[in-house]
Amino acid sequence: MIDVSLLAPPRRWPVRLLSALRRRLRTSELWLILLSVAVGAAAGLLAVFQSRIAHAMQSALYHIGPNDHLSAVAAISPMRALWLAVGGLALGLFTWAVSRRRSTRLVDVVEANALHGGVLGLADSVIVCIQTIISNGFGASVGLEAAYAQAGGAAASYAGGRLKLRRHDMRILVGAGAGAAIGAAFGAPLTGAFYAFEIVIGSYTPSAIAPVAAACLTSVMVAKGVGGLPYSIEIKAQHSPDAIGYALYSGLGLICALAGVAIMQLVAGAERLVRRSPISQAMRPAVGGLLLGGLALVSPQTLSAGHGALHLDLAVGMPVALLAVVLLLKTSASIVSLGFGFRGGLFFASLFLGSLLGQIYAGLLDLTPLTEKLTPENAALVGMGALAVSIVGGPLTMSFLVLETTSDFGVAAATLAAALIASTVVRERFGYSFSTWRLHLRGETIRSARDIGWMRALTAGRMMRPDPQTVAAATRVEAFRQRFPLGSTSRVILLDADARYQGILVTSDVFAEGVDPQAEVATLAISKDLALSPETDVAAVMKIFEASGTDELAVIDAERHVLGLLAEAYVVRRYAGELERQQLEFYGESRE
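Above: the chain's sequence. Below: its structure in token form.
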């Protein structure tokens, strides 16, 4: 007798291996750390790859050396300045072609972690990276950091999706991938780690520390191993500030906060004006490229992210008036770039603008009778961190960037003090970083990458009881009493002749003394004009219950057909249960 099971094809070993790995990842934090190491390596390689492509484009178009920076060239000829318009045209046509094939918006890492549990589509990420490389490669005043973070986060999201990670683990892994890419770009693992915590994950969770740190350390080592050249900020800190110096740097933090809010508002205003203009979407970057070309003829420091210009200005020791002109030109270039549709981030551009603002601040203090003076180098470092915090966010991210750049704890502490002041002022007066501000303009309400997607997923449609008792609104009280004896049910939903919602009837009210047995039950209905839609999330549901003072509400569709009944007590229990689960995941106890 032949065993039939022997004739069945054996299960492929990759499938068995993948299943075993999924089980390990769900029960062991060590395996999540090992996966983070692999994601960090991929993020480092992707960052180096994108950097080389963009720099190769700049070298070919503007004839700069392999170790030179576009923003540090002496001058740009009018013919080469036209490359900005050509790049804008290429970007506009690419974006137009993409929009013809898709109806949904592109999702970045912050939005993915805040709303979608870390799920980040590969197609979205490839499009964002191509758009950013085109923009930076042709010299627009944007950085590659958006592409770095997007690619690192996408690699993490793809791996997490294949391994079916839980929502919390997926968010950690995506944060680790994005932070690892930033760490590799700057050769600064601590900066990358706190970028992940503050910008992408939205909190410092104990369960995320080891995976994020492992990914960032790995990415930096891999990037250096393959010959990647990080964004080295070669500014030597001078003497550490004293108490008066801290006070002066606090004033710089306040100025940077106001400047950061102004820049974000101006970018948003420019985008609104361009959208209202008769210029087609495909041609907007080309028109913006012509404007950028004019600015580049005045000063090449307006081009690209500004890495070369940052070092050049400090090395030359430019006067305050000239620094102010460069600040104005670079700010204008960034606003034009983003307003007219170029893709990229303001991470490094905000560092450059902050360094200019810090030098101007130090120069103006020299003109006052104050005996305390600030060195241009220290002021540039502090301004760099404070303005970047105002625009990008992340006080510890920028403070650790200064620390890893200078190895000077005194200047890093002064940067932290200024950054905290800038962050507080921006949060109180404005409430958004640049990434979340752009999401706000699109109609979203998130203010950070903190996970609120679970609340949006917990809707009235998911929580409702789908089989409520119903009765015709024209039913007589006497007939109702016979059909629903006292104690059989607490509430009944009333419907009209077309089965549309007409309110809720409390059963005890029907049996109250003095009620006419021949009256229609519709005369006793409550919440006639109050109901929930199935898409209403748990936070909105709780607010509606609190405002209405009722215990149960019907869930109806757009035609007022009843879908179910939802009780406030059940909503509170579900919400408390989800909060407890989030808390367990926060401390890494959900694996136990």
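Residues 454-579 form a domain with the CBS-domain fold (CATH 3.10.580.10).
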